[in-house]
Amino acid sequence: MEPKDDAPEPLVCQNCLEDAETKDEEKDKGEGQEQEKTEPKEQEAQGENEGQPEEQPKGQEQSKGEGQKPQGQKSEGQKSEGQKAQGQNEGEQKEQQPEQDEHPARKRLEAAQQRMKEAQEQLDKAQREGAVEKQEEAIRELQQAKAELEEILRQLREEEIGRMLAMLEARFHKMLQMQREVYDGTVRLGKVPQPERSHNHEIEASRLSGKETEIVVECDKALLLLHEDGTAVAFPEAVGQMRDDMQQVVVRLAETKVDKITQAIEEDI
Questions:
Q1: Which of 36, 141, 184, 255 is most solvent-facing, going by the fewest CB within 10 Å?
Q2: Region (Disordered): which ranges (predicted)?
């Protein structure tokens, strides 16, 4: 007999096929669920990315607004500074106006200058009659200005003399008070008999000599004021003689000479 070529087909388990089909279906379901989960996440990410560009212009607008505000503030500051400068200029002009009003002689000089200028112009135009009148007006203005200046100088001189006399009066009054103190001290020391005088007596006489030196310094200041004034001649000479007497008292007191001669010199002072 000849062998058969066709081998018997293996029998397939029906249960195994069903198990394989169920596993494939579960895999398909799991992959579908994962795709469904990832799709919402991607949509949310896309939504966030789409929302961000819309917020950026707002920030830019804010930055622009904030950048523009300092410019407005600067302009307002410039306006306020300009107003302050104008106020200062007006104040200076107001201060200058009273100073000009206080000097009428200046107005006279300016008017005379104007008249002379007009006269010169008329002379240049060969209008001699009008030029003569302008020159006469200029001369009158100059004369009035001269008189007013002399009056101002006289008043200033009187005020200056009054101030100097007040200073001299105060200085001489101070010198008189100091000289009386020295004289009283000299008389008190002179009453002490010569044998009873001690070292304290010499110290007190030296102190009085220093006090007299201070009076000499005040006298020098008074002489300086008188020489600067230059108007009075006899008065500085009298003050100079008084200074010489003071200097003698300084020397005598330093030598503890408190006798009648020293006291007489102090009385003359």
A1: 36
A2: 1-131
pTM of the model: 0.47
230: region left, alpha or beta (phi > 0 left; psi from -120 to 50 alpha): left
User: Is residue 214 scored above 90 in pLDDT?
Assistant: yes
| pLDDT level of residue 144 (50, 70, 90 thresholds) | confident
User: Exposed (0-12), middle (13-18) or buried (19+): which is 6, by Cβ within 10 Å?
Assistant: exposed
Please work out, in degrees rounded to the nearest 5, the angle formed at the alpha carbon of residue 266 by the alpha carbons of 189 and 242: 150
246 Cβ neighbours under 8 A, 6+ residues apart? 212, 215, 216, 219, 269
Residue 32 tokens read as 């579908």
Residue 258: name the closest of 199, 181, 178, 204 by CA: 204
Q: How far apart are CA 81 and CA 76, in angstroms?
A: 9
Quote the percentage of the chain above a pLDDT of 90. Answer: 18
Question: Tell me: the pLDDT tens digits for 164-193?
Answer: 888 888 989 999 999 999 999 999 998 888
For residues 126 and 181, what is the distance between their CA atoms, to the nearest angstrom? 82
Report the distance separating Cα 260 and Cα 264, nearest Å. Answer: 6
Q: Measuring CA to CA, how many Å separate 100 from each of 43, 94, 238? A: 88, 10, 44
